[in-house]
Amino acid sequence: MAEIKDELEGTEQPFVSHLVELRDRLVRALIAVAVVFGVLCLWPGPAGLYDLLAAPLVANLPKGTTLIATNVISPFIVPLKITMMAAFLVALPIVLYQVWAFVAPGLYSHEKKLVMPLVVSSTVLFVAGVAFCY
Fold this sequence. Notes:
Elements: H1 2-8, H2 15-42, H3 46-59, H4 74-103, H5 109-113, H6 115-133
Helix pairs in contact: 2-4, 3-4
């Protein structure tokens, strides 16, 4: 497979090779998210992340009240969902690199120059939004 990629470097590739490349990039991104999810499940654990995010809400609840589960499976699913979202956020640089590695060969050099300011400003605004929401 590496020989085929080397031969086609700098030339227009057929449609199927684009699909194979896309599949490879998606698999790498999913593996990165899965590895981070596994690590976050081991330490600090889904309950630890849930407690961290719920702490401001619990601190401002009226005296004598607690959070309740409105569904039978909610106490199990909600911490896992939070852990999966955190895993995606932690693995986001790898995911974005895989997207860039797939898209970059099809861009002209003047188009590639526009990407860095876009990524930096988007990252700063995203982090500011997350900090404001928390």
